[in-house]
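Note to self: user wants both folds in one dump. Writing first protein now.
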Amino acid sequence: MAPVKTQQGILEFAPGLSTSDYHTARLAFFDYWMKDIQDETFSVDNPVKIFVTGDNVWRNEKEWPLARTQYTNFYLNGGKSGTIKSLNDGTLTAKTFGKDCAPQSYVYDPMNPTPTRGGNTLYMFTYGPDGAPGAAAQDQRPVDKKSLTFTTKPLKKEMEITGPVKAILYASSSAVDTDWVVRVSDVAPDGRAINIVDGIQRARFRESGINPTLIEPGKIYEYEVNLWASSHVFKPGHSIQITMNSSSFPRWSRNMNVAEIPEHATKWVKATNTIYLDSKHPSHVILPVIPR
């Protein structure tokens, strides 16, 4: 069997990643259940095996999601984090700002989409002037500067998130359809913003994945964006950053912001998209915090 590749994107995960691999774990699982062979890499009492980035170690768990998870809201707020020269450089806090913050807007142009730059589905290609070769972990600053960002203060102690992540957005658009792309990144003391999880919600599928309905321009809707799951430890001095935009192309197809099916549309419009941050519309992400 080929040796495990320990470098993913621009990050090195050795030696932890090299102590096991996906195929070995699968083989041990099937050996136990189909051949009654007990292998030390699989335990029926701790059947869940995860790789915890940040700590860069494999860990076995009893269940998924973890029973000890503390789902914690982190709110998108106004103010300035001083982290990056993005479109807004907002703050991210575990409580609301204490007063209503002004909504944050940006223009999404399908003819100039935010390019894919790494990601948790391991895309291996380069796209556009900001595209990054390689898979997985990449510095997101080139695309973050064209997006809305919300960043915590540097953490005083480490924080682990393990499990499903989602965002609740209150948003409006000048168009009848658009996309909402949300990413969680780990911002290192040197400023590098490394992607942890991300997800997308197409506005027309906000209520149903099979029965699309267009949105009313200017109306505020609530969106739930599934960012999938991860296991990661943010180290002291690092910050948690949420990035908002409306594309990651070509990983996801561009939304043309019109009524026609985006993949077949012959026309397109620019959309002014707005995220709301007030007490009636507390946009936030829900992180699965694990006590340590």
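First done. Writing the second protein, which came from a different request thread.
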Amino acid sequence: MKQYLLKLLTITLLIASMPALSSTITDAEIDKFLKSVPITSDLLDKVKAKVKKDHALAKKLSKAQLEGKYTREMANELKSWPEYATLETLVKQSGFDSVEAWSLVVDRVFGVISSAQWVVLVASMPMPNSDIPPVLTRDTDLFEFLNDTSNDAELREKYGKQLQEMCTRMCYDQADLPVVGARFQEIKSVTNKKN
């Protein structure tokens, strides 16, 4: 009986000591992400320039991007680079505990945004041999479109399903959709300033 209780206690302590994973990205994480964008952008531009010169690494990161893991893979590759220590300092200035925590949040935010951008891109393409203009334009805020009840309900349902399908491929968790979507304009504003 003592061994059983000891094993149960050990398992309980192990579970309690594991880092908690948020099932949904939080506003606090998005706030830290927004703070990190201007702080890390110069360094990341330099890193991306180095990555472009390494064709094998660029190919690997391209694949990771399609899987919604680009920043995590890049951060993992950077561990042996001199830039890693600088990145670690910068993300801590943004409020993150580690590069790993930062890279996960970045991938979560961009997974949602990339999914929405893909749906808009496809929906804004003109149909061959058709005079009917596309419903969406390239600059459409998909989240705004989906939430605007004055838009056609069938189209909102169609694009909402497409967004969920893309998010299944590119997002960490579909539960991130409404949280990131609600702050899309703010995220877009901050990320566009860095470009």
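Dump finished. Worth passing along: Confidence is low (pLDDT under 50) at residues 4-22.
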